[in-house]
Amino acid sequence: MAVTNPVPLSVLDLSPVSEGATVPQALRNTVDLARKAETWGYRRYWVAEHHFVAVASSSPAVLIGAIAAATSTIRVGAAAVQLGHNTAAGVVEAFGTLDAFHPGRIDLGLGRSGQRRVEALKAAASGAEPPAPRATEIRDGLVIPPPFPTGRILASPRLTASFAALQQPGAQSPDFDGQVDDILALLDGTYRTADGVELHAHPGENADVEVWVFGSSAGPSAALAGRLGLPFGANYHVAPSSTVEAVEAYRAAFRPSRFLAEPYVVVSADAVVADDDATARDLASTYGHWAHSIRSGRGATPYQDPATAEPLTAEERELVEDRLVTQFVGSPGTVAERLDTLRRVTGADELVVTSVTHRHEDRSRSYELLAREWGLAGLRAA
Questions:
Q1: Which end of the chain, N or C, is surrounded by fewer C-beta atoms within 10 Å?
Q2: CA distance 235 to 116
Q3: What is the pTM of this model?
């Protein structure tokens, strides 16, 4: 049975590279899926910025341009541009260019992973006590697992090298709040340097882009989005332990603005849908392998084929248990019910779904079945 009066659904695509496939294939798959998502009735198609891993979405602005050119109505954007690796001016000019070609369809999502890593490493070096462990909680049907300690990943040699390669030698990640203020000023045409010099971004100034802030906890990003009256993205698919608190913090901090009269929240979920629960579980059976490659500090490896992958060991599974129990896997009805629980508990105004499977046709089918079950305009359930 389809969900009644559902909130809109959107797509978050990492452009995953499957085992045995190539990066060009992954990018072509992304454009193909975007075309289909538009016809099925998804509201937005977002890509995420990742580097030096087996996902092909490393250059969001370039990929967004290709997706927007292949579609005509669906909103297209980044979830999110990582400001620790980018200047405010560079971001505004890139997305201003996109808006010039595709006016009124571009979403500019902003994230602070670079700054967050620096803060986490400083906290670890200071000897600050980590939060006390807690048990998994079921909140009105939604699984809230214990927080995952990110210190080992953030300090891994591979991630350290990746961050170094993405910045000029000796560069420091600037203050996130200041960068967001600069982006908004450049878009508005009100930017001034500390010395009072006016600078105008062309393209970029007066671009009709929708600015979002993304966050994983009840921290600075949620507070900033609320203070500025911007829409907020909370990532249950990556940080399920703190999503509810992040949304609550955003709403508590929200001030009406020229962007929004009231808070607007999108919450992400990882989902795999198939015709029946057993088939979906089989398709999703190597998700844990993929999550483990990230959690172990190796970075996302090519997505493994369920037909040939060895099962996770007990130790490997323990490292990714929170990601496994919060992935929504099953028939259309099973997944729609869990998504509706996520919507109800978080009060989300919109849900964005990321699906990863080894075969592109299975991933496309997953989104198609979900669109039909959810009652999206392009595929009403029979």
A1: C
A2: 15
A3: 0.94
